[in-house]
Amino acid sequence: MNDDTTPHLGAMLESLPDAVVAALEVRDAWRRRVADSNPGLEFIVSDLQSWPVGSTVRVGFLDGDSALHAAVVSATTQISEAMNLTLDFGYDDAAGTYRRWSLDDQERQAEVRVSFDMGGYWSLVGTDATDTTIDPWGGPIGGLPGQRTLNLGGYKDGLPAGWEGTVRHEFLHALAFQHEHQNMRGPCEDDFRWEDDEDYVPTTDARGVFVKDAAGRSPGIYTYLAGPPNRWSRQKVDHNLRTSDDPGTIASTFDAASVMLYRFAPFFYLSDPSPCAPTGNGEDLSDGDKRGLGVLYPPVALPEVVEQARQGLQMLTTEAPGAGVGRSPYSDRVVDLLDARIAAADG
Fold it and tell me: pLDDT per residue over 131-186, tens digit each?
């Protein structure tokens, strides 16, 4: 997604750099192996990206002025009102300014580190914002103090159409929400036009974007996204658009009104109207979005979740022959997340 909340022909869809995605895939593969070999640790593949219930998540800005920061903060009010989690933007009433962070930071000034200087709109998911295994070499995106975690490209030049919906979309990612079109309980997987229409002749417009050919046949998603401005491989398309059938994935009922559901160009769908097409306005949180926030961040931490964290922590920190866990940056990261969850529950 690049210029509004309704991707269309020639629009750039949001995506993280390939290097970041690769690092996340390595980490997630490790977590799945540990979960498969250690009964009782299944939750680590699906339940560690949400922040501790009732905790405070600091947000800071790399660039942009206070007026822009205030606009972003205002757009997140709908989110804050629906959950037991505090987004702390570090507002200084006397100065009229908000928290800032720097590329040179050696200590983390904020968990969610917002920037406006890179291309496109994207966000790391939930606690990935503090995961230093994502890019420990200091690239532009990752969990180190001086790395970006959420970007709203172009906002310094003016707020685009649908900007509030985009802010809410990206901040829901920062709170551990995934894309709704990848919900395994939804219809999108079966209704997306993955492949070209039969006998489609590759045809592009003046921008090089794949369009319908002279006979009215449409390009498939793989072909369309292989062209400019996205230039995605099939693997990247699968990562960003296909649903996951991982048994560890937690999925709610498909919500066509969610701000997490893209509004694609009509040719992306096989049917018209498509059951995958959004019914919301793309701006406001749906009732389902609000319920999801309430489930992730309820009034109090569920006792069974806290007990699960305690048991998992004991398993990961106990030197047991044949346990199959082993100490590594990945296991240390899980231990830190479980410690934080327990500490928040204990008050």
Answer: 999 988 889 999 999 999 999 999 999 999 999 999 999 999 999 999 999 998 89
The Cα–Cα gap between 269 and 287 comes to 25
Cβ atoms of 261 and 280 within 8 Å: the answer is yes
Closest CA to 47 of 343, 336, 334, 342: 334
Nearest to 184 by CA among 140, 225, 245, 137: 245
Maximal C-alpha separation, the chain: 67
Structure tokens at 178: 């995934």
> Token digits for 18?
């390939």
Closest CA to 110 of 100, 118, 120: 100
**Token pair for 257:** 């009104």
Return the H-helix or E-strand segment holding 320.
none
**How far is C-alpha 68 from the geometric centre of its chain's CA atoms?**
22
CA separation, residue 323 to residues 28, 220, 313, 319 (Å)? 19, 46, 13, 8
The number of CA neighbours under 13 Å toward the Cβ of 238 is 5
Range among 25-34, 60-69, 180-189 with highest mean pLDDT value = 60-69
Spatial separation of the C-alpha atoms in residues 304 and 344, rounded to whole Å: 14
Distance between CA atoms of residues 106 and 31, nearest Å: 28
CA-CA distance, 282 to 195, in Å (whole number)? 27
φ/ψ of 114, rounded to 5, equals: -90, 140
pLDDT digits (tens, 9 = 90+) for 259-295: 999 888 899 999 999 999 999 999 999 999 999 999 9
DSSP, collapsed to helix, strand or coil, labels residue 27 as helix
Per-residue pLDDT tens digits for 305-347? 899 899 989 888 875 444 445 578 999 999 999 999 999 998 7
pLDDT at 198 over 50: yes
Is the separation of the CB atoms in 114 and 150 below 8 Å? yes
On the CB side of 75, CA atoms within 13 Å amount to: 23
Q: Within a 10 A sphere around the Cβ of 108, how many other Cβ atoms?
A: 18
pLDDT at 11: 59
Q: Which of 82, 128, 116, 114 is nearest to 259 (CA)?
A: 82
Count of residues for the chain? 347
